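TICKET: design request
STATUS: open
ATTACHED STRUCTURE:
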């Protein structure tokens, strides 16, 4: 049933283009997009572009996850850390990563480092804020009980705080992965010669409209499938949370 609306959209889209209601030079019908998608899949162009983009997005995302969870948990447990980090987070959080990307290129070069670091910068804020919210929402009774039983600060963090805050952390990770995909596509359009974002720009510059739509479809499918993977992973790691929300 969930596929009905996408199928209807594709049928209407194909009909509108074939009937000449829109300029076929600017809007490719789904049939031509499918042919183009098959072509770049068969010749390896799609796999090469996706591999580069996923490597960049994944590296930046993992860096943001490690640093963001650590800073968020530290802020929630330490008033000094909160005073130190919170103003900086609120200062830089509204700044568009793409506005900073030219500076990152100047500082770290046109290679992979600038793209990975700008993704890490963009992804870190949702992870920090969700981790902070998750840790702060933990009932202090559980922490005091674990301490009364002789748990060390590290054991309290590992066995009480992190497990209890994982649902909130997962939410931050899901949001941040979507941001990673958005930022890497835009960054590759600005300063790259490989990747799915560069493929979209190249297709637009060479007027290969079916390739533009095929690349956009791949980006959308990638976001959908990876988010589905996050949800399945959460269900596997946090079965009790799944039962609670159901």
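STATUS: resolved
RESOLUTION: sequence designed for all positions
ATTACHED SEQUENCE:
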């Amino acid at each position: 049933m969930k596929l009905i609306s996408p199928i209807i959209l594709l049928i209407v889209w194909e009909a509108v283009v074939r009937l000449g209601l829109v300029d076929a030079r600017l809007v490719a019908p789904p049939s031509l997009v499918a042919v183009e998608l098959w072509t770049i899949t068969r010749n390896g162009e799609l796999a090469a572009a996706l591999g580069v983009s996923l490597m960049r997005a994944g590296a930046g995302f993992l860096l943001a996850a490690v640093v963001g969870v650590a800073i968020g948990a530290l802020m929630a447990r330490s008033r000094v850390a909160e005073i130190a980090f919170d103003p900086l987070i609120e200062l830089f959080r509204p700044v568009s990563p793409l506005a900073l990307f030219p500076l990152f290129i100047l500082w770290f070069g046109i290679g992979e480092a600038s793209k990975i670091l700008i993704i890490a910068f963009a992804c870190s804020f949702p992870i920090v804020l969700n981790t902070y919210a998750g840790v702060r929402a933990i009932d202090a009774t559980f922490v005091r009980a674990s301490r009364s039983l002789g748990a060390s600060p590290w054991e309290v963090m590992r066995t009480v705080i992190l497990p209890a805050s994982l649902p909130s952390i997962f939410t931050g990770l899901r949001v941040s992965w979507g941001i990673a995909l958005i930022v890497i596509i835009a960054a590759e359009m600005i300063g790259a010669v490989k990747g799915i974002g560069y493929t979209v720009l190249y297709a637009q510059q060479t007027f290969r409209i079916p390739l533009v739509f095929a690349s956009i479809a791949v980006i959308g499918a990638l976001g959908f499938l990876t988010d589905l993977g996050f949800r399945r992973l959460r269900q596997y790691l946090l079965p009790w949370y799944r039962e609670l929300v159901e």
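CLOSING REMARK: The chain has one domain: 25-245. Residues 25-245 form a domain with the MetI-like fold fold (CATH 1.10.3720.10).
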